[in-house]
Amino acid sequence: MISQRLKALRNYMASKKLDAFIIPSTDPHQSEYVANHWKLREYFSGFTGSAGTLVVTKDIAGLWTDSRYFLQFEDECNDSEVILCKQSIPHAPEHVEWICNLLNENTIIGVDYRQFSKSQIDYILSFTSTKNIQLQNEPKFTDGIWTDRLALPNFPVDVHPIEFSGETTASKIDKVQTEIKNQDAQYYLFSSLDEIAWLFNIRSSDVDFTPLVTAYALVGANTSILFCNKSRFSQSAIATFGELNISVQEYDTVVSLLNEVPKEKTIITDPSTLNYSCFNAVSGRFIYQNSIVKELKAIKNEIEIEGAKNCMLKDGVALTKFFIWLEQELENREISEYEIGRKLDNFRQQQEYYTGESFAAIVGYKGNGAIIHYTAPEENSAMVKNEGILLVDSGAQYKDGTTDITRTVWLGGTPSTELKTAYTSVLKGYIELEQLQFPIGTTGAQIDAFARMHLWKNGLDYPHGTGHGIGSYGMVHEPAQGFATGATTARGTTPHLSHQLTTIEPGCYVTNQFGIRTENIVVSKVVKETAFGKFLGFEALTLCYIDTNLLNLEQLSTSEINWLNNYHQLVSDKLSPLLNEKEKQWLQQKCKAL
Amino acid sequence: MISQRLKALRNYMASKKLDAFIIPSTDPHQSEYVANHWKLREYFSGFTGSAGTLVVTKDIAGLWTDSRYFLQFEDECNDSEVILCKQSIPHAPEHVEWICNLLNENTIIGVDYRQFSKSQIDYILSFTSTKNIQLQNEPKFTDGIWTDRLALPNFPVDVHPIEFSGETTASKIDKVQTEIKNQDAQYYLFSSLDEIAWLFNIRSSDVDFTPLVTAYALVGANTSILFCNKSRFSQSAIATFGELNISVQEYDTVVSLLNEVPKEKTIITDPSTLNYSCFNAVSGRFIYQNSIVKELKAIKNEIEIEGAKNCMLKDGVALTKFFIWLEQELENREISEYEIGRKLDNFRQQQEYYTGESFAAIVGYKGNGAIIHYTAPEENSAMVKNEGILLVDSGAQYKDGTTDITRTVWLGGTPSTELKTAYTSVLKGYIELEQLQFPIGTTGAQIDAFARMHLWKNGLDYPHGTGHGIGSYGMVHEPAQGFATGATTARGTTPHLSHQLTTIEPGCYVTNQFGIRTENIVVSKVVKETAFGKFLGFEALTLCYIDTNLLNLEQLSTSEINWLNNYHQLVSDKLSPLLNEKEKQWLQQKCKAL
Fold first, then answer.
1. What would the pLDDT profile of A363-401 be if each residue is shown by its tens digit?
2. Nearest to B461 among A439, A450, A492 (CB)
3. pTM of this prediction?
4. B493 vs A438, A446, A487: nearest CB
5. Under a CB-based contact definition with an 8 Å cutoff, are residues B315 and B397 in contact?
6. Tell me, which fold does domain A2-137 have in CATH?
7. Shortest distance, CA A300 to any CA of chain B (angstroms)
8. Domain covering A299-590, topology
9. Which chain B residues touch A510 with a CB distance below 8 Å?
10. What count of other Cβ atoms lies within 10 Å of the Cβ of residue B34?
């Protein structure tokens, strides 16, 4: 099937004199999760992983992805002609240099400009230009090939009410318009879906796991255009927008409208998200900057933080009920990883304002926990017994917030010293970073290592960043702040500020043996102000017991034991009123002071 | 005087139709310390600080420098027309954007290409090109203006013997030639003086504080050229070079020889050090890379590490004798900061293989210690009494190594709690980073904050990086590894490897009150190897007691007290055999276990 599709693509390439074609995994908005309509890379390669780029030439179809997906690639693509090209750095465009080395001079690469940001095309051009390789925009290359391609989603759009958003659309638009005036520009062009959802206080269900709306937005000094099919909105929503000088226009008119922007106008935009098709449509001048909405959105207001805290109560209740169910059920039977994931979601569904999972839950038993982006298959996933280790990383979307939590639990038997050392070091790392006080503006790369130091002491480590921003009924991975080793990633280089929500999630993985990760969401706040400036600290928001069966108590300092006792007291105090007597007793047992 | 010089420069600019002139502080080799011949920026601005760039237009003469030098600028330039332009980031070329904004289209900036690296000119061109501003090479702009400009230094060149270098020139050249072959190139062009000194095992005294030789080097696949005046070498040195297929040619013939390199040849070079004049002279193809010699040189061999350890003994003895002298002398009289610095140097001069200071010693009493790049003036420097705090940052060049150490001592009276908290936090930070174990390849930015964490906890910090590489009878600030907050500096982004010498030097500064810094040189070594890879740790090499009068013992953990006792035991054990009985007793008192 894949080879038929590739054959059809190559026929198309031949007819258009294309020597190569690059098919990335994203949509016109650089989204992490995309609507089925945009699953082009999956369609032509069979690979369903969330990160990967397909490069097709006459002879080769190469799928570029990083080590998190190597096993998944083998599972999904082993029978096809698609070969695995191993990236050393996740999301790095290593295929660009490769294809430019491979191609002769004066050749042509086909791309759909909508799938590439302005920055990405600039990067490609820096390699193609020396060999006079041309890029050709091919927005219709699937016509006649992908005949059952789904249309773009067109679900109703909900207005995200002020009791959840905490700030009116008028106030948010006003901040953007102030920036337009400050920069002496006329427009601000947005293409990132979560920025548009935040700015206009709108939500829908266009993509998996994230309540976003497929749209563009052009904010002017006084009036704004939201490019999103009008039929998706209620009459009253349209009317309310009208009062704010926001007109709603059809999604697919964005390019033609951008064409009409006069040459002398200046548009501010973020080149890392603006797609090249939109960029190309404009004859005016651009000012490039990190999106102001990305920056504003990362600072949560008090209502959003209250919402997050409320979600943590709900998540905490669901997780407590889930772990009780798991413990009891395992006494009688084995349960598949897949069923465990579904059951956890069932418990969350019973909570107020629940709308869905915030990502595909990771339920990894024993060695499966070591596969960092593991998803238990619907059929034949591993059977979990009342012994050994289980990693559960999950989250939900509630209308008042987004959650993401990982716990690793011991199901029975005697854990090895190695396992206890690793588990204890992970917890110590979590505590170290969560308890750190640091100057406002410190970047994630500067402090990521505090979560690793105790692992390092034991010759251990983990091959991923330590945390990411998280949205408010938005994206579970929200830019830009976080904790990462790399000086090249936004999570590494973005200054931490007050009122941000970020995960702290150190781990430790031994292939075929175990995966450990402990993850809470924390909120940043100013804890001290001196002549040296403001200093930030974190407060844990996530409320769920931490399994003490895997702790090596001798490794913990007094202050670490105090931290754990205080945290468990908080979890117990906050969740107990929401549990029945039996559940309460079970939780208090888990939260008993050490 | 300065205004006469600027007037002459502006006359020259008018005659050449130049709208601006940029005069940086460096030489054709991007050296940190330059020969007097190259002190152009000082000549035209009067500013003697080590970092700063002068930009001259018809109306403005602006000196760009960072906060470390603001006070010095006021002292030195207050009476002249030169204005201070405050840089927010040290060494950042912030003046480039400024001058390009200021100038009209189609204007011309004069520069001496030799004073700019290839990378620096590329950076300038990225701003000038949009306004069609031209750069014009003006290597003779001081002719007829700076009439008493000194000639380039021409001192005899010493061969650095194998008992100090630990590796023959033949072996070093061989590694470069292997790289040339691996890259399918014909030449490797070097312009950094410390790289050339290392590669050819040569030393001289062309610049202050650093035993370098003014030279270029072109290494070919089989033969090499060292561009350095032949009269500087002994007959036997020339002969020995001859046996290695190294010919010595006059320094100023480099450009004409580079002109002759055929078009089809490929030259490897480091664009961050190669000056634009040399770059311009070549018609062949360049391969740009981080200099291989910079990388090789950063890994010290066993002889160099032995040499470093030997220097620490010598420095330790000199410092012990110095601190004894200081303590005794202060009982009877007040001593100027300047005299203290000279006296310390006197003690070092008595040590074997001493050749000079490795930088201008910083002796800062009370508030002067808070001026990070303070140099006590020869006349009217502060008078030090037997009370209060004194910061002494100093180092020496010995033929077997280079040293750099900072100690802060309490001279009498009762220190404030604030002072003790800061001093103790600085020491805790030093210990934290020195004791850290981390994966090989970890960058400086990732672990710099361990030296700050205890300061941060108390709302304190310091406005500089935490450490730098150091040479072996070479530069006191040797690239590339180190510890820095910034993801944009080499010290922040360079991976740490085994066998490197680096300083750890946290501090704390309160304007007009005190400066604290504690600095040791450490060597990196593999301390653990597991399935997760190799892990590095540090071993302190510097041997000098740490003043315990300023410690708040309640702030120190048991393991920190153990660290200090062990370190003091080491200092006492190593230095005592080299001291007389009285000195020994004094040191043992200072090193007494807590």
1. 999 999 999 888 999 999 999 999 999 999 999 999 999
2. A439
3. 0.94
4. A487
5. no
6. Creatine Amidinohydrolase; Chain A, domain 1 (3.40.350)
7. 24
8. Creatine Amidinohydrolase (3.90.230)
9. 531
10. 24
